[in-house]
């Protein structure tokens, strides 16, 4: 018997209990501690579904390293401590473990099923520099995702592949008979939407959009296949619509306005067919934003107002605040300062009411930083550069450092406002900070903003830092 055969026949080592984490729980029951984790998550704008079972698995050592969302929550709960202090293994020591185990496992029927691409995501740069939505803390979720998008319209589903989002469909899917969709496929679809949003927050849209069309086709193939239960069907319609909006946003942020408009319209139609006011409000919200960027401010106002009519019964003050900001952006495009001021006042008053359980999951991005950033855009459109720069600076300072794309966006807004406001040296300094972030962020929107700033700064090359910014910007690789 060879040494490899000997090693492969050995049972895996049992997990080592996490005694440090158990000690931090103290006298609280697992359920009480899980509730504390969920409260801490809400305090920092995270959403985690922590329960007593999850706590038990951490303490048993089954979860060697939490995903980034849980990491931020735990570090918020226990300031000054590191993951190692909490009893977890370093992320680098865990990364890729499951992929290696899969390579060593004997080939079976399950190897032909759709697979999850482990902790390293198997993605090209820039995604392999971070694994922002690790899944090794929940093996049962991997099983759900392996079954994702297995049914539907044969070749369409077989072609769907989205490795950076942890989902892939194998070539044998077309050979399998169509069956009705269950909760596992719906859950996988919802997970794909979350992953797309998180990757966009961290890296921008350009590198993601090309990969996003396949799962969207698969999602609508699932709709065609039908579901086993009414509740699953409602979730499936909502998930497909949210995915259409997410893909539309990737098109929007990468400058593909016609594609974005089509995806938003598809989401709106899905929402109306399903009678889903939350999805309808979201689709109108993004349609308003797109109309503003595409130079159709009156449409932006109408779409934002339609969104508010649909969203009012939902009971989310934060959603109504965001929609008021969308309306303000349209009024700014029409140079209507009165309408703009009224919408901004509503947005701020509604935001001050705080979060609630009625807030949609997709609004996790809407915190104080986004409020400041959107207000900066409004004042910039109105030509009030000083006020715009003040709000953009606040937005960049307030943004969670994990979300590089938004920091780059707010700082690019700041650079442009400073340049147009006659402060070229400060604008150049802000522009250089953005250029440093573009090694990990891909966004045509941000590159377009920087190009405009560079044009404004050209006559001021002698000002401190301006020539350095212009030279570095000129050497920036252009998006294909």
Please describe what this structure looks like:
This protein has 480 residues and is mainly α. The protein has a domain at 15-94. The chain contains 23 helices and 2 strands. The protein has a two-stranded antiparallel sheet with strand order 1-2. Strand 1 and strand 2 form a beta hairpin. Helix 16 (317-333) runs antiparallel to helix 17 (337-351) and helix 16 packs parallel to helix 18 (368-381). Residues 1-12 and 95-179 have low confidence and may be disordered. Residues 1-10 have a biased composition (Low complexity). Residues 1-20 are annotated as: Disordered. This is C1 regulatory protein. InterPro entries: TPR-like_helical_dom_sf.
What portion of residues belong to β-strands? under 5%
Q: Give the overall shape, derived from the CA principal axes.
A: globular
Structural class: mainly alpha
Physical arrangement of strands within the biggest beta sheet = 1-2
- Which spans have pLDDT < 50 for at least 5 consecutive residues? 1-12, 95-179
Series of secondary-structure elements, N-terminal to C-terminal: HHHHHHHHHEEHHHHHHHHHHHHHH
> How far from one another are the termini?
55 Å
Taking the sheet with the most strands, its summary is:
2 strands, antiparallel
> What is the residue-mean pLDDT, rounded to a whole number?
76
DSSP E strands, number? 2
Give the helix level as a range of percent. Answer: 55-70%
**Discrete helix count:** 23
How large is the radius of gyration?
24 Å
